[in-house]
Amino acid sequence: MNNPRQRENDKQLLHLVIGGELVDVDTVYFRDLAKLDFVGAFPDYASAYQAWKSAAHASVDNAHMRYFIIHAHRMIDPEHDDSRS
User: Bridge partners of 17?
Assistant: First the structure.
């Protein structure tokens, strides 16, 4: 769909892909938040997974580097967000 506005019945399932170096591989505590790698925002899990896979593969030489897919659509609800005016 080339239209930047999705049809009313379509659901956009926003996913974010981020990564960074962890202090310890047994935790999810980033060494330096200023150096987080924001890979991007994606409209579905499949495209987020491809971006995650690519970023994770590119950092395979650093054992402390981890990338994550954040299911942002589970944290926000634009249809019921009271902050819209």
Answer: 40, 69
Specify the pTM: 0.75
Query: How far is it, in rounded angstroms, from Cα 10 to Cα 30?
Result: 35
Query: Which of 3.30.70.2400, 3.40.50.1000, 3.40.50.620, 3.10.580.10 would CATH assign to domain 15-77?
Result: 3.30.70.2400
What's the pLDDT band for 6 if we cut at 50, 70, 90? low
Q: What is the DSSP string of 40-67?
A: EEESSHHHHHHHHHHHHHHTTT-TTEEE
